[in-house]
Amino acid sequence: MDFESWEVDLASGEAKHASGCVIRVEGDPQNPTSVDPSNFPKNLNFVDQARLLRCGVQALENAAREVGFTGQFTAREDRAVKVKSRTAQELERQARMFAENPGKPKRAVLSLKKTPTSDR
């Protein structure tokens, strides 16, 4: 496998390998804050996956250096991944529904405020 055959898109902070592997980075290309690899070939062992990842990040860094890119790659909202489980989402929905319910039972309020006395 040729670990050096990368196609770099600096506009999106993304590098695509001929095998289908895609690496997206955020932050400074020379010191990224986030690296998101995907689509590693199934027959690739862990050592070669690490090498492919390292070569992809290096390809992005080299491409940025060649064109004098000094900016930061930023996260795009369409890349966002939902992390919450369906159970957590359902519990949040139920809690919102209860909190917004105007017919919910009234609770007694404990107050430490002193009431004005008329003895004075």
Characterise this structure.
- This protein has helices at 46-67, 86-99, and strands at 6-9, 14-17, 22-28, 31-38.
- It is α+β, with helices and mostly antiparallel strands and 120 residues long.
- The longest helix is centred in the middle third of the chain and has 22 residues, at 46-67.
- It is elongated.
- The relative contact order is 0.14.
Secondary-structure map:
Blueprint: E1 6-9, E2 14-17, E3 22-28, E4 31-38, H1 46-67, H2 86-99
Antiparallel strand pairs: 1-2, 2-3, 3-4
Morphology call: elongated
Query: What's the gyration radius in Å?
Result: 27 Å
Mean pLDDT: 80
Provide a count of the helices.
2
Question: What would a concise description of this structure say?
Answer:
By secondary structure, the protein is an alpha+beta fold.
Keywords:
single chain; 120 residues; alpha+beta; 30% helix; 19% strand; elongated
